[in-house]
Amino acid sequence: MSVESSNSTNPSLIQRIRNDDSSAWRELVELYTPLIAHWCRKKGLQPPAIQDCIQDVFYAVLKSLVHFRPNGTTGCFRAWLWTITRNKIVDSVRKDERSQSAEGGTTGLVRVLAIPDMQDEDEPTDGPSFNQLIHRALNQVVSIFL
User: Which value, in Å, is the radius of gyration of the alpha carbons in the chain?
Assistant: First the structure.
């Protein structure tokens, strides 16, 4: 199996989910939960916020998977998932900011500047944590063919 194929989500998995196959949904959740958590940690979310974000991401996937159309490029589903995750991370940071007491002056400016600007970022796929996630995913896929 090539490294390039590890960046792709099996189209049959997506189709099985669209056909209400609960085992396919569990497979997708098992496969992508560690990656979503990794992205959240890299953006500075704390464990409770990470768990909330993961739930929000999968809820958004469930609602919008019917509209997902692969464009034939490697990593298309993962890029779509990253976009959803990035948006949910921003929502989480905004929600956290709203729940804290208002501050003005320099303190307020420092807090505003600390909000990550993720509009133009690519998905974070560097470092040993990401490589471990790829190996875990490959091991799950290999079991299908053995």
Answer: 17
